[in-house]
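fyi for ur records
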Amino acid sequence: MTEIKEEVFGQTKAGQIISLFTLTNANGVEVKITNYGGRITAILVPDKNGQLGDVLLGYDDLDGYLADQSNFGAIIGRVTNRIAKGKFTLDGREYNLATNNGPNHLHGGITGFAKVIWQAEISDQHTLQLTYQSPDGEEGYPGNLSAEVIYALSDENELSIQISAETDQATPVNLTSHSYFNLTGGTNTISNQELYLNADAYIAVDETVIPTGEMPMVKDTAMDFTQARTIGSGIAQTKGYDNTFVLNRLSTGLSLAARASDPVSGRQLEVYTTQPGIHFYTANHLDGSLMGKQGQPYQQYQGFTLETNHFPDAPNQPHFPSIILQPGELFQQTTVYRFS
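which gave:
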């Protein structure tokens, strides 16, 4: 049965105290989460010899996260990924958002949900509940949005992330968790780690990573992970992955989206989700200048994300599934990371 411990993680420049919560299950697996950005800061899971290792990129202290530009471990909102030119039209009105990624809006804006303080509550000592009230007009989005994230760690080494949201005005919502994994638990790149994606198609993008509207099949391309293969086998052709894959879904419930494994450590990660897409990113922007945990410089391709979500730029892509949340509706998404 999971136990949760709370401690002080540090304080912001404005003097606000930030907490760090450690979830520990019966196997000794640990997940650390802070209410600053709802960030997962560490996941310690055993290798094939039973040795615990941290499989997440991040920082040793709060100061690292306060300065972070990579969204390590964060909850992303209101909308993950990109919105073209920071604009969308809803009910006849054009809304303008921050353009913080070249000409486009990325990951909810300048602050988004990754750099705000969430209210935390430990429920029955087994789950951690985080809530955030996003006011009307925040980052340019309409409506007051109430967001909730529930983290739970099972004795089967499954980390469940349940995200929900309600609004009092129509608004785009596409929330996700943004952790960077490296299953070696060390300083190796991810090139020799293997990946399977349950996706026969992906979303084609232009040079600014905005969808063209096309969904090509992955077969016989560097995008094909329908049979497990090393991540590094396609990096030369793609110059690193930054792509949303269209999941093969048979139902609206939880289904297998991805499986990653590391032959050296023996660790395996399976990702289950209720979402239609998964965004695979190979930390292409890291260049050795960023100092991560234990002072190690994070190099290009040192981690990968498997962000479960709706499709990018959905408000401007009429044939994509809608991400507009209406008053009286409930946004819900569940993702489970299963380690073995």
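The mean pLDDT is 96. thats all i got for now
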